[in-house]
Backbone:
């Protein structure tokens, strides 16, 4: 179902689409979406083309970004795609938001590794329905708390010392519950942030420094 998508109707030869490192086989994200409709996508070797930044030979036509935006609107649910340049998210109405990856390159390598490992886990766990901007904000807050000397920091350090995935949730009365961990009296501020921003239960999958 194309949902009104209008790409270039003519077949482009591989050279016109950027050669062996370009898009010789067409619109990558369209093919990936067709295999697993609605699933979060990660494209490792190219960017998501669009009308504003078209693939070679597709100038003036809809690209992959327009296709995914239309699909989000058709399905009535958000979609997430990562490409080589950005973390991209479409809301249920098809509105597109991006977080350019270059904004994160100033982070230390071990912090960036922690962020990306957990971003990937969060995104898959939430089925791509949470804005990457929110996920980044929460994970960086968690990292800050882990590196601090307060009780919350010690809590998250203990949380991440586990070798298995640990799930935390906020109850209706504001109390916290975490599988596999003892109850502590201090309610981590990060959990409050997660509750206010997403209204979801979050899982933490931590990587060693």
Residues:
């Amino acid at each position: 179902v194309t949902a009104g998508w209008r790409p270039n109707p003519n077949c482009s030869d591989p050279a016109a689409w950027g050669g062996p490192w370009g898009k010789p086989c067409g619109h990558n994200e369209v093919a990936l979406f067709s295999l697993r409709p609605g699933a979060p996508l990660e494209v490792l070797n190219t960017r998501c083309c669009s009308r504003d930044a078209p693939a070679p030979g597709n100038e003036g036509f809809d690209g992959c970004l327009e296709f995914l935006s239309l699909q989000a609107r058709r399905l009535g649910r958000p979609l997430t795609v990562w490409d080589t340049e950005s973390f991209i998210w479409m809301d249920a109405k098809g509105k597109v938001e991006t977080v350019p990856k270059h904004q994160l390159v100033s982070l230390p390598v071990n912090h960036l590794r922690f962020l990306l490992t957990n971003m990937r886990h969060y995104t898959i766990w939430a089925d791509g329905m949470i804005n990457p901007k929110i996920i980044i904000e929460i994970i960086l807050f968690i990292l800050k708390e882990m590196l601090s000397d307060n009780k919350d920091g010690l809590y998250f350090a203990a949380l991440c010392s586990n070798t298995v995935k640990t799930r935390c949730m906020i109850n209706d009365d504001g109390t916290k519950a975490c599988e596999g961990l003892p109850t502590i009296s201090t309610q981590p501020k990060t959990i409050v942030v997660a509750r206010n921003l997403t209204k979801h239960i979050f899982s933490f999958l931590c990587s060693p420094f």
Observations:
- The first strand starts at residue 41 and ends at 42.
- The chain has two domains: 1-105, 107-209.
- The CA atoms of residues 11 and 26 lie 9 Å apart.
